[in-house]
Amino acid sequence: MSGRPLALVVEDTVDQAALLRRYLDREGFDAFIALDAESAIAAFDEIDPVLAVIDLLLPGISGQECARRVQERFPECFLVISSVLDAADYPPADAALPKPITGADLRAIVDRVTR
């Protein structure tokens, strides 16, 4: 363990996942990347995220269902929904991160998490 807080990223687009990993690393987080909800859920026993960034449009189990399961399993985790969809259509979460994501957008959310 690095001693850095862990962020769970559930994102099926490899480039987007890599971008989020870079932004999170810059903000002092380790990132656990899951390319689908099933992989994220399978890792629940090994991870303890303080932040989760979940894409709504995922193959298989939906991002909305994944977000629900993350909230159930990690009630203290700061939940962020990310999508190309209209933010008004996002399920309830601690923050919205509409795409395209910028480093400044993510930094503003991280500031809320670490306050």
UniProtKB/TrEMBL annotation:
Gene3D superfamilies: 3.40.50.2300. It holds the Pfam family Response_reg. SUPFAM superfamilies: CheY-like. InterPro entries: Bact_response_regulator, CheY-like_superfamily, Sig_transdc_resp-reg_receiver. It comes from Microbacterium luteolum (Aureobacterium luteolum). Residues 6-114 form the Response regulatory domain. This is Response regulator. The modification 4-aspartylphosphate is found at D55.
